[in-house]
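User: Run a structure prediction on this.
Assistant: Running it now.
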Amino acid sequence: MPVAPNTSSSMIVRTASNPTYTIYNLGQNQILLGQDVITSGQLGSDFNFAGPGAVMWDFAQNTLDLWVSHPSTMVVGGSGGTTFSVPVTQFVVYNISGNTITNSSILGNIGQEWQVQGFGYFFRSDLGQADMLTRNVSNNTATYLAYDTENNQFNISITAAVVGANFNTAGLGAYFTLSGSTFAQLMVLSDGAGGLRAYAYSNGTLVNDPSQVFATIGNGQDWEVLGFGHFNSQFGLNMIVRNIDSTSANFQQVWIYDVVQTATVNYAAQLSTAVTSGQMPGVLGPIGLEWKVAGIAPVNPPSQDPLALLTTNDLVMRNTNTGALQVYNIQNDVLTGSAALTPPASKPIAPTSTVGGMAMDLSGSAQGSSSQLVQAMAGFGDGSGAAGGANAGPPGADTSQQSFLTMPQHG
């Protein structure tokens, strides 16, 4: 079934009981259509979204990709011909086009001590299928591994960072320019004391010096990073943060930063100088702490032009008490409007349902628009997908792939 006309992005929601996965098409500051893509009984109830940002756009296949996972076990061989089971997490990916699943595959297994941090484009400069970032803490050290998932399978992995256990993931974002001269997948880590550190990857290779300070915001206890997106017509990247200190005059204020390249080809976040009506420069306004990020994607773009969808992301927040959704329109670093996203009566969203994420969706755009975007984005590198510094996967990793037409059931 084609997506609704004027769709610019889509989000996928999972019900809490008898899990059903529903895709909601977004556009013109509205939820235009809701349609089930995985119904109750087709997927085991112990499957859930694989992690934050489990819905991403696949430029190469022109699909939305949905990652789900569930706890499982894997039999391994021991000494003397003995075997034993080890706990793993099994990952499955669904390719979705036009609100229909076109393909699904088992990516493989990863040890349960590795937790998914998000998805981004670490390995391919032509923005193919997004890659999975994982984190494991051992002996007071946090290790980050990024997995290349091209062609619906775990391929190589790289050690993306090794830092102290005090570092946590602040967010992921892709930095790129209209000229095509720069593309980098940024992984931003927080040291818990207000310091942010960026690791920039292109074609699987670290391309910056992460020891340089990316940004310093407060004391680490008074601000939270809401996410990264493209809110400026010059492409680049933006970071949005919120004050969570109830004693501060800035309490609940949301600020927007521009991510820039420095003279030493590093990346830094600088408070925007843009002025939203009635606010100080760089301030978008207050959003209560009961509102959490549901996703960052184009919900009300100025046009359906593919490049416009990339440069006019919007911030979607969800009320943790009521489940209500609110979109904040941001253009050129300025808050231009806000609207409630009301689901259709036929497909309500319960407060207990989980939003798996949202991404740009060109399934309903004019014919050829997807290919035009892919061609435009092909300028961001040689497209070889070559990766440097490849490492073996963590204990319990299994790179086997299994394709299937029906949804997997947990055995």
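The CA atoms of residues 298 and 309 lie 6 Å apart.
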